[in-house]
């Protein structure tokens, strides 16, 4: 219809063509606005569906309107790293809360090794106990050392191909040190460990090792070669994605502890591989990552906040009693004992945190 006037300027068109042309322009604009609005609405709907289905953000409870957000270590700027490391170092100056005769810094490895912490390994309470343990640590950093941020986590899935070059390692004051290269000592003739002599925690003196009192240095002895390669395979993103699709808590918890949880200690060695693994401050970033994976798993499954089960006792026979949400998480005096049910959701008055 408009082909005959196609080359003419608009002012030179006949009135009938101008009218038709104006109508076409209006219709065109309506069409484009409609399509644009449709695309915006569709995009928002898809975004909502993705967020809802993956539960990347969870609705706050009435008592947790402003959760503390935990972030990956490499997202911290230098000042944030300095603030966190100084808060951890501050723990060494705070007297023990549970009577270890040392500092609250050493209360945590003590509670893990000699208290109930180690007893939760191989049980259903492995993830809930460590979730509460991390929360207590975070609270002490905030309440007694003036730390204002959330507990960082180390997402080693980003580093699995070059795990020993991850940004958590470093010789400067804003990193956790590197492999132990100092004097060595022998623990009961079994393990030889190297003292960490660089980084923020260089030459740290500790007083508990496994289930005994033994003064020693913070130590690490990085694994190398084929064993390192085999261990890092557990940390591949593809393996973690498969783990997150595990339908039941019992299987998820068991696989998490037996393989994912043990891979990093086996790589780092030293204090990290002992019962007193919290002697190494990096342990808390590792366990925060494990807690984050459980948090993701909970939000990916319809009954993730209530799905719980497994052995109540370490090395229990299949016929032994099974754990339940009313079982007690004991903290050896670090904080009040609570029930498992109280830490299943991180967005309650007890915990009130989330992950970025």
UniProtKB/TrEMBL annotation:
Highest taxon, organism lineage: Eukaryota
Gene3D superfamilies, per the entry: Di-copper center containing domain from catechol oxidase
Domain Tyrosinase copper-binding: 121-138
Cited Pfam families: Tyrosinase
Transmembrane spans: 35-59
Keywords, alphabetical: Copper, Membrane, Metal-binding, Transmembrane, Transmembrane helix
Cytoplasm among keywords: no
Molecular-function GO terms, alphabetical: metal ion binding; oxidoreductase activity
Matches recorded under PROSITE patterns: TYROSINASE_1 (PS00497)
The protein's name in its UniProt record: Tyrosinase copper-binding domain-containing protein
Organism: Lophiotrema nucula
């Amino acid at each position: 219809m408009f082909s005959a006037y196609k080359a003419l300027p608009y002012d030179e068109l006949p009135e009938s063509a101008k009218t038709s042309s104006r109508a076409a322009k209006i219709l065109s604009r309506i069409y484009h606005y409609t399509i644009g609005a449709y695309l915006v609405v569709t995009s928002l709907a898809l975004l909502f569906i993705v967020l809802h289905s993956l539960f990347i953000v969870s609705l706050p409870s009435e008592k947790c309107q402003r959760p503390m957000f935990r972030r990956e270590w490499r997202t911290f700027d230098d000042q944030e790293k300095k603030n966190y490391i100084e808060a951890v170092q501050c723990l060494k100056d705070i007297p023990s809360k549970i009577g270890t005769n040392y500092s609250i810094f050493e209360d945590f490895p003590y509670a893990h090794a000699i208290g109930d912490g180690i007893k939760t390994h191989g049980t259903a309470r492995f993830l809930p106990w460590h979730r509460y343990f991390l929360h207590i640590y975070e609270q002490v950093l905030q309440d007694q050392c003036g730390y204002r941020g959330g507990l960082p986590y180390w997402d080693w899935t980003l580093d699995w191909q070059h795990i020993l070059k991850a940004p958590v390692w470093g010789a400067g004051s804003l990193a956790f040190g590197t492999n132990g290269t100092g004097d060595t000592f022998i623990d009961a003739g079994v393990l030889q460990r190297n003292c960490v002599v660089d980084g923020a925690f260089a030459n740290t003196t500790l007083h508990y090792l496994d289930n005994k009192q033994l003064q020693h240095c913070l130590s690490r002895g990085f694994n190398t070669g084929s064993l390192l390669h085999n261990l890092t395979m557990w940390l591949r993103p593809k393996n973690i994605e498969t783990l997150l699709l595990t339908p039941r808590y019992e299987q998820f918890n068991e696989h998490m502890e037996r393989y994912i949880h043990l891979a990093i200690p086996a790589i780092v060695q030293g204090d990290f591989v002992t019962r007193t693994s919290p002697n190494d401050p990096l342990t808390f970033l590792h366990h925060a990552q494990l807690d984050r994976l459980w948090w993701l798993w909970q939000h990916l499954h319809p009954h993730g906040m209530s799905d719980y089960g497994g052995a109540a006792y370490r090395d229990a026979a299949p016929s032994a009693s099974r754990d339940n949400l009313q079982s007690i998480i004991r903290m050896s005096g670090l904080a009040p004992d609570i029930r498992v049910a109280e830490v299943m959701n991180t967005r309650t008055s007890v915990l009130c945190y989330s992950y970025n």
